[in-house]
């Protein structure tokens, strides 16, 4: 799994030789001071490293070559303390392959009324430098983040930290491998997609592995390994079943699946209840426990949602609200009290639990296999996002909707799966209409941690379509946006 603290964001300060060594020494010292200050702030999830003050075309090109080549570097943040003529940035930025943030900040907070003179103006001209630097980003049509504000402002630091999370997810995405145990569920449309396009755009390696091979690995798991895994379950969850065989079998499945994922350097996987050849149970508890460890999972062969889940988990590492594979199931249409009920056949991640998960065993109803053990719990309350990636044919669309999860308003004692209830923004009927108009899937990633900004930044880095179904959006505006997007993506 990705460790955010091991990733580096490089801080590159723009200047030029015109100012002479005295000014450039001050600029460099301040760049170092600012990088150290930000690096120590807890809202900054990655290492923030001062990489120098660049003063010429050759220096820009050299630092960008190094950034592209260095595996630890996941993006660059530029800042112009002084004026840095932007033609010297063109050759370098043309070749930049990593996320780019233009940090429009300045060293001092206030203009020193009494002391300000032309020496001060020559040294402190970030506002001047920002505009030249901004122009070349616009002129070159670069994907970039522009963050504005003083570098000690906590909101500014948070914005920078959130962008770093998106940059880390960009890097993670480039190396992401997804194991498909079997194919997609028969006849389902939205879980399909162009895997070649996904690899070109997003870097994802999406490949299939025979379920029969998984079944053979399951058989080879030792009893000692299974005992150790069941001890983990007992430490984390309450056991509410006498059918321990089903629990032990899930442990066996989990160990076997993780063995293959590790062997293939994969961070996400899919399976389907329609292809469990040689297996006794659909993995339930097994998949839930793997999701809790950070793996991405998509049911019914849904590799796009599996990938998005582990990307979002990587992006939001350490935030603690949780993210899960989710499915929209049933509406509660009581007037003025409308809710959506989300769940799945089994596979909801316990990272979003609001109650201690209970291990229970119940028949599955479909799939024709043994009754699987699964975790049953209620999701916790809080603001969240529903995230769906769909293949529009020719492009990928990432849809994000604002939802408000609540403590489930009903106990539903006979529902044998984990469940979450949420309200939809701007209001129930309008929100659902917009989701359907945009083509959002029934499978989603439900995340309490990722923000719209993080996902929008990530989508821009990835060069894919991004649609935010926000509280203030109307269906009319959405339809216009989607029509314009259709045109733009045809042209690009
Ligand atoms: Mn499903």
The number of helical elements comes to 15
Residue stretches low in confidence (pLDDT < 50, at least 5 long) are none
Class of secondary structure makeup = alpha/beta
What is the strand tally? 19
Strand order of the largest sheet: 11-12-17-16-15-18
Biggest β-sheet strands, sense, barrel: 6 strands, antiparallel, barrel
- N-to-C terminal Cα separation, in Å? 34 Å
- Relative helix content: 25-40%
What is the mean predicted local confidence, pLDDT?
96
Rg calc? 25 Å
Shape: elongated
How many domain modules?
Answer: 2
Instruction: List bound small molecules.
Output: manganese (II) ion
SS strand fraction? 15-25%
Tags for this model:
single chain, 492 residues, alpha/beta, Rossmann fold, 2 domains, six-stranded antiparallel beta barrel, five-stranded parallel β-sheet, 15 helices, 19 strands, 40% helix, binds manganese (II) ion
Describe the structure.
It is a single chain. The protein has 2 domains: 4-174, 3-Layer(aba) Sandwich (Rossmann fold), CATH 3.40.50.10940; 177-491, no CATH class. The chain is 40% helix and 22% strand. It has a 6-stranded antiparallel barrel. By secondary structure, the chain is α/β, with parallel strands linked by helices. β15 (382-391) and β16 (396-406) form a beta hairpin. It contains 15 helices and 19 strands.
């Amino acid at each position: 799994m990705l460790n955010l603290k091991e990733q580096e964001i490089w801080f590159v300060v723009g200047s030029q030789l015109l100012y002479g060594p005295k000014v450039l020494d001050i600029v460099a010292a301040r760049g170092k001071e600012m990088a150290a200050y930000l690096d120590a702030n807890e809202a900054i999830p990655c290492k923030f490293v001062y990489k120098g003050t660049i003063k010429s075309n050759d220096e820009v090109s050299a630092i960008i070559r190094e950034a592209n080549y260095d595996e630890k570097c996941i993006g660059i943040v530029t800042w112009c303390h002084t004026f840095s003529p932007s033609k010297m940035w063109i050759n370098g930025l043309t070749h930049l392959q990593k996320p780019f943030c233009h940090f429009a900040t300045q060293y001092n907070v206030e203009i020193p009324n009494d002391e300000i003179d032309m020496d001060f103006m020559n040294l402190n001209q970030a506002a001047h430098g920002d505009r030249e630097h901004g122009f070349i980003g616009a002129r070159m049509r670069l994907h970039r983040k522009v963050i504005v504000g003083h570098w000690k402002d906590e909101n500014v630091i948070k914005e920078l930290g959130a962008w770093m999370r998106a940059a880390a997810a960009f890097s993670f995405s480039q190396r992401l491998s997804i194991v498909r145990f079997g194919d997609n569920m028969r006849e389902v449309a939205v879980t399909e997609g162009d895997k070649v396009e996904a690899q070109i755009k997003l870097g994802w390696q999406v490949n299939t592995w025979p379920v029969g091979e998984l079944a053979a690995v399951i058989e080879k798991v030792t009893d000692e390994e299974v005992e150790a895994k069941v001890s983990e379950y007992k430490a984390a969850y309450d056991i509410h079943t006498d059918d321990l065989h089903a629990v032990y079998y899930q442990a066996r499945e989990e160990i076997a699946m993780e063995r293959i994922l590790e062997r293939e350097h994969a961070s996400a996987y899919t399976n389907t209840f329609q292809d469990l050849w040689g297996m006794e149970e659909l993995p339930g508890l097994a998949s839930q426990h793997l999701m809790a460890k950070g793996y991405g999972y998509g049911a019914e062969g849904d590799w796009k949602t599996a990938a998005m889940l582990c990307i979002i988990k990587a992006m939001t590492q350490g935030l603690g609200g949780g993210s899960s594979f989710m499915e929209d199931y049933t509406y509660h249409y009581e007037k003025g009290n409308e809710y959506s009920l989300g769940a799945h056949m089994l596979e909801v991640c316990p990272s979003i639990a609001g109650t201690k998960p209970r291990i229970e065993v119940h028949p599955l109803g479909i799939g024709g296999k043994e009754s699987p053990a699964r975790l049953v719990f209620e999701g916790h309350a809080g603001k969240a996002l529903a995230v769906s990636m769909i293949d529009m044919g020719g492009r990928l669309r990432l849809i994000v909707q604002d939802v408000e999860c609540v403590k489930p308003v009903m106990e539903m004692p006979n529902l044998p799966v984990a469940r979450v209830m949420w309200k939809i923004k701007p209001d129930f009927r309008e929100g659902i209409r917009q989701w359907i108009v945009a083509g959002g899937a029934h499978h989603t990633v439900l995340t309490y941690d990722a923000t719209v900004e993080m996902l929008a930044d990530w989508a821009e880095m990835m060069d894919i379509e991004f649609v935010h179904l926000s509280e203030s959006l109307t269906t009319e505006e959405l339809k216009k946006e989607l029509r314009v997007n259709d045109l733009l993506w045809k042209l690009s």
